Amino acid sequence: MAALGALAAVAAGMAVASPSAQAADPTSSNGASAGSDPASRERAFAAASAEYGVPRTVLEAVSYAQTRWDFNPGHSTSGGYGPMHLVDANLGSAAEGRGLGDAPAPAPAPAADTLGRAATLTGLPEAALRTDERANIRGGAALLAATQKRLGLPTGASTDAGQWYAAVADASGSTEQDVASAFADDAYSVIASGASRRTVDGKQVSLVPSSVKPQAAQVGRLGLHKKQNAGPVDCPPGLDCEWVPAPYQDLGGGDYGNHDLANRPTAPKITNIVIHNTEATYDTTLKLATDPTYLAWNYTLRSSDGHVAQHLQAKDVGWHAGNWYINGHSIGLEHEGFAATGAQWFSEPMYRSSARLVRYLAKEYDIPLDMQHIFGHDQIPGVTPANVAGMHWDPGPYWNWEHYFQLLGAPLQSHTSGAAKDLVRILPGFEDNRQTVTYCDGAVADSCGSQPTNFVYLHTAPSETAPLVNDIGRNSKGAPSTTSVSDIGARAQAGLTFAVAERQGDWTAIWFNGVEGWFLNPASAPAAVPVKGSYVVPKAGLAKAPVYGRAYPEASAYPAGIPVQALAPLQYSFAAGQRYAVGDLTVPTDYYRAVTFSPDTPNDHLDVVGQDRYYQISLGHRFAFVRAADVDVVKAQ
Description:
Layout: H1 3-7, H2 40-52, H3 56-67, E1 79-81, E2 86-87, H4 114-122, H5 126-131, H6 133-150, H7 165-170, H8 177-193, E3 195-198, E4 204-207, E5 241-243, E6 249-252, E7 255-257, E8 272-277, H9 282-289, E9 299-301, E10 308-310, H10 324-329, E11 330-335, H11 348-365, E12 374-376, H12 385-388, H13 401-407, E13 423-426, E14 455-457, E15 491-493, E16 497-504, E17 507-512, E18 515-520, E19 528-530, E20 534-538, E21 544-545, E22 574-575, E23 580-584, E24 590-593, E25 606-609, E26 614-617, E27 624-627, E28 631-635
Helix pairs in contact: 2-6, 3-8, 4-6
């Protein structure tokens, strides 16, 4: 890979952006505080249903498919406000100049101005539609009712919910028929299955399951066009995708950008999908992906509506992971957002689009739907000890992995076993798991507010007052990890499986980066569940087993003319007496050689495959690799 790609890690520079506080509790239209009333959102749906003649199941299902009933403060460069995700197409870039790239972003892509239309239909000011839950839900109901009336379909709160299919599809905001239909199908699946949750701002909303027959043929009344993708777009039906190519360009002087040509999945094999966030707005991100002097990844997803831009074909290698071995075996998805602001950018449309895309790609390339193969940039190891401290931490503590894997159809609760004792999977829940996180704006300790988080902290002893464990790769002097938003050193993340070290009362200790890390895990409210699987231990006679950040071949595998790539063990100690959960026993052993622009260069654009075997293990927040020759695999009890 060219020097440009070797030095840079990802499109997101992960500079911490200054967040606005978590959305303040909206105030109801009569002036009373809605924030102190958990039932206020439920009543708002009932009132709007009656006022505008929209079946309550339809109204609540549309809101759930857009926001899961959360009151969002505005996503992306085009808004997306409140439980009904009302989009302000005239907003412009709310975060221009943050993250990477200070040049003015181009005008946002055309979007339906549902906020403006709702204001016209209801007579309410746009400010109220942005901040008031009753006004926002009334606006969403008015839009659905207006579409139903325009199409000449039956109205009324008691009408058959299946007769509202076209209006629900129209609520997607898409001009493409298959995308609008996919949104409607999502909403109707919620009606069929039901849903219940407490929202981020403390509102309890429930939708009782009901039998409904969606009138899918109605979508033809909307006059939407059939999708015609330009370029080699590789996306599933129902996903709004476009081709925005990344340039493969000779920059002179032996340098080139912004990715490498390859022949995947033949060589190297595609085994992983990496979840990133951009640390820049969508428009700035597209400018970076199309800059030949920068980096490329495979897909970018927009926050406001889940729209997808594809930049690379899967056969080629993007420069996104900060680890060349992982780059060679992965597809990278960048999600518009800033890790320190969490739910303000990680919208439900983006989660759903991402999950639909990942399900499709996983099936296409035979990638298991688990967190050993679908993982965050923050889980990727450094390639040498010197690289560890500089590795990235996106998508960060506010990405909802538990919900994401539910959308993937592979819930993280699967393969649990109440009888298992050697392995546990961290599953603290999300909405109610509000861990202390600090320094979200890079300067003020208490700037993060109270947000749901995806991890539990690990302590050096079974006590809340005990220091957090140290990550020697981040702090070689042994200082405890911190609660800073970017410090992953003591975070056991949801969905990851760890080997149990010991238990004391309500506390469980796991092996984590060479030390025991304790977390509160009472039977009455467990933060982890027992799971089946295997773990590894150093082979008998070894004081410790080396751990690596990549699975490169043995020296004898390299043909003449290709330099042997040195394997540098990481600084973590996997000593006798410790054990680590196995993530993958079928790790490819190879090195993809690509250091020149021309694919015709001898001994270049060549996959060097070795006979040595590696296993992927759950070492800490980041995984690592161990040589099969150094460890024994033990079936967990």
